[in-house]
Amino acid sequence: MIVIYIHGFNSAGYGDKVNKLKEHFGDENVLSINLPYNPEKAIRQLELLIRNLKNEQPLLLIGTSLGGAYTLYLSYKFDVPGVVINPSIKPSKDLKSEIGIQKNYKTGEEYEFKKEYLEFLKKIEIPVEELQKIKDKIYIYLDEGDELLDSKKTAEFFKGFYVKMFPGGNHRFQHMDQLLEDLTQKREVRYG
Q1: Model pTM greater than 0.90?
Q2: How far apart are CA 73 and CA 170, in angstroms?
Q3: Whether pLDDT at 186 is above 70
Q4: Main-chain phi, psi angles of 188, to 5 degrees
Q5: What secondary structure letter does DSSP report for 148?
């Protein structure tokens, strides 16, 4: 099985979460790339990756924040399981205030987040009624103390899905060990 980790806004494809995934699934089984800042280009890269790997072996997508929104879209489009961590469920709205010059907190790179990016993000927001079709393949993990996205509203949005909310924590998500334990011991993930 191959795990594709999809990082969030102003982040990168390396760090603590990726390290924990590599420890758990094996270094050679985890793919994590630095995605373009343009969401359309990011989605195209991820689609290419998924298309090339989907028929070779089972896939699991794991995405955080904006990467969670990408994961929901890609899980739906390709019918593969997705784990979403503190996801942005309405990125076109959540990132409206971020238009302008940004600085990636991991790489230090500066770039412009453009208004037209929001228009593309709106196009990939899958209505919850459609996500119901793959609800047995979606796993939602939330930190109650997420200071950027309202975890209670997210849990309500995903009512009827598998949702696990951890007390405390924050938007960067502090419960990766517990997530991995829960994913492997308490749930049987239906790999795509």
Answers
A1: yes
A2: 24
A3: no
A4: -100, 105
A5: S
